[in-house]
Amino acid sequence: MLGLRGRYESSNNVTNYPSWYVTGRAFDLILSPGQLNNKTDTILPLETFLTGELPSCSLLQIDKHNYNNYTISVKFLYAPNNTAINIIMKNIKRRYTSKNLIEMLKDIPDVDPQIFGNLTLNVKCEVIGFSSEKKLESDLSISFQHQCNNSLLAGIVFNNSMLFDDLTDLSTIQYKIRLANTKRRFRDFAQSIQPWDTTQLFSILAFSGPLDRSYMTGGNPGYWAEGFLTIQHALHLSIMDYFENVEGNVTNDILRGRVLKLKRFPFPPYSRKIIELGVLFLPTVFAFSFMTSVVYIVRNVVMEKENRLKEYMKVMGMHSWVDWAAHFFGNYCKMMITVGTITILMHYITENTNVLIILIFVALYAFTATYFALMVSTFANSGTAGFCPQYNTLVEQMTVMEHLKFFCKLKDRTWNIVEAIQLLKQLKLETKANNFAGSLSGGQKRKLSLCIALIGGSEIILLDEPTSGMDPSARHEAWTLLQREKKNRTILFTTHYMEEADLLGDRIAIMANGKLQCCGSSLYLKNRYGTGYRVVLVLNPKSSRDNIEKLKDFLTRLSDKITIQSVVGNELTFSIPPDEKSRFSYIFVKLEEKQSVLNVESFGVSATTMEEVFLKVNNIAESESGIVTVDNAQVLSSLNKLRECQNVDFLNGTELYIHQSKALVISKLLYYQAQLKQVLVQIVVPVLYMALFVWTATTFPDAQDQVPLIIDYKNYDTVDPANIYVNSLDEHLPQYASSVVSQWNPYTVKKISYVANNLTMANMTTILTNKCKNVRVKTIIM
């Protein structure tokens, strides 16, 4: 639009239009308003007769006899059918019948028939009467189904006062002019036929300046081009001829001053702005400006669910409606920027509209376009739990310190920045306090999640593998922090690190095959499921098989409760049960005495670990559930037998395609059986949409009769007062101006002001026109 600014924007003075004659005769069909070379507003296009090319769709029926001889057919229907009305309609027929229309143009003032050359135009008029309006409407409806090249111009219906043959009172006469239900000459920008709108008295000005400024007759809805004005004037004169009992002709009309001269009302000075072009695209831009916001809102909601941030905050004590309200108000505040921008633009387009009304309207539109269903609930209780899930539920656009502050207030706890800094220092995250969460490494994100669970002094802490993804150094830092914090909190955490469970857990629960197998302190579980103390003997590399057997015999003689666990290379491992703890000194002394004889280089002892306890509990659970451990040798034997099997002949060609198709069908059927609801939606919804489209296509609204528009000679009433300011030429001019305007609008002119002492009658029209632009008056007589 900026590129069109220099071409579109302009300042214009008072717009005056030329006048033209309305005769109420056949001349009106070809006379052009204003200048004769303006072929735009004629009822029948003059180029049809000057070029000899008949249009494909003409308002009336035109018959071409030769290159310069044409006949125009005009037909009127009327009701009711009696003597008086027949005489009036014969006068109508006489007015629209002409054997040589061009020759008779010499009787019309300011019209030169020589511009038509040797053109011959004959006009043939036909009037048909009906006994009732209902029969007339039926014939009109059938005839007007053909809009093009139809000689029928209008139907005329007289009121009940004209049912009698003898008419005496002119004031009681009323009539209806029934044109086609749609305009036959005027098209919109898409060249589609538009109906008459008799409910709207004045057109809406979408742009500055006069409406349809290129049309001398006022343009849309086309009272002149559709033939309404000439028919109305012809009826008026025909009724007058009936009461005066004269036969009207062109000469008598001119001599008696019955030729009407019309002129479009002048328009005051105006300026055109490029912003007016935006009005055409405003509804589309208005709708799409909020559609993009909806896309981003949906993306944010989906991303939050994907990161499981919503569930994380619900554990902290937040209710669902608070989360939805945050989405709503957060995005609505962003939309207020768009709302404010549109309001400013609309203010310059609609200068007479209150800015507050525009703002409220646009805000309500944005509200409804992005409305979320909010469930009203009670306020969330104070959060007493801290939660660190297995996944990192972090907002990448927030910093580390903002995370701690946000979740601390989410728990309804007092924000203490000293506490936050201490937590970060304990985990060596103080240097990342102002960094965005999206820039942290995996281990640092786990540290931040752990800090979020601990911030605010939550009494209950739930940790799901809090140290997963951390390096050994960071893991030990987390252990130190948890050991310090568990004094004043209740901490429940899950882990796969048995060392972590042994170090931090006061009570340890072991799950296997989805079931809780045991629960107790570390010492209790080791005593219950442990193998006691494990002793590892390192043998001399030169030791033989016999030396190992001698060593086993020696150990069993020391205690019959010693169990040999494994012999791997030069290492022999055996276990001593806890109840043999009193014999440890004796066993180790004997080992030292026989160390050289038994070829033992060194030996060490260790207690049972939690890993051993876990493995033993897992084996017990598998044995109880019927899970059998298969030996590797058995697996290798089975594989060898499979290799010895004969080769299988594979399908190919058509059989392969049939087999694959059958497999796909079976797969789909099994899927449909498992996802029955989804399949029903996929099948039923398209069928319902198709049925809806078919139903919509068959329920287009039919053509409806327009509301009658009554035309009378009453003053146009308005509640808007008009203030007319004129310059004073003499003491009589203000009274003259007041009487001129009040003659047509006696209720609108409230004040005449003296603003200067200089005025000429020449600019009187301009002043009245400028000051009366908001007052709807019928005419100003000077």
Automatic annotation (TrEMBL):
Keywords: Membrane, Transmembrane, Transmembrane helix. The chain crosses the membrane at residues 277-303, 324-349, 355-374, 679-698. It is found in: Membrane. Signal peptide: none annotated. InterPro entries: ABC2_TM, ABC_transporter-like_ATP-bd, ABC_transporter-like_CS, ABCA, P-loop_NTPase. One of its GO terms (molecular function) is ATP hydrolysis activity. One of its GO terms (cellular component) is membrane. It is a multi-pass membrane protein. Coiled coil: none annotated. PROSITE patterns: ABC_TRANSPORTER_1, ABC_TRANSPORTER_2. The keyword Transmembrane applies. Residues 307-538 form the ABC transporter domain. The keyword Transmembrane helix applies. This is ABC transporter domain-containing protein. It comes from Bursaphelenchus okinawaensis.
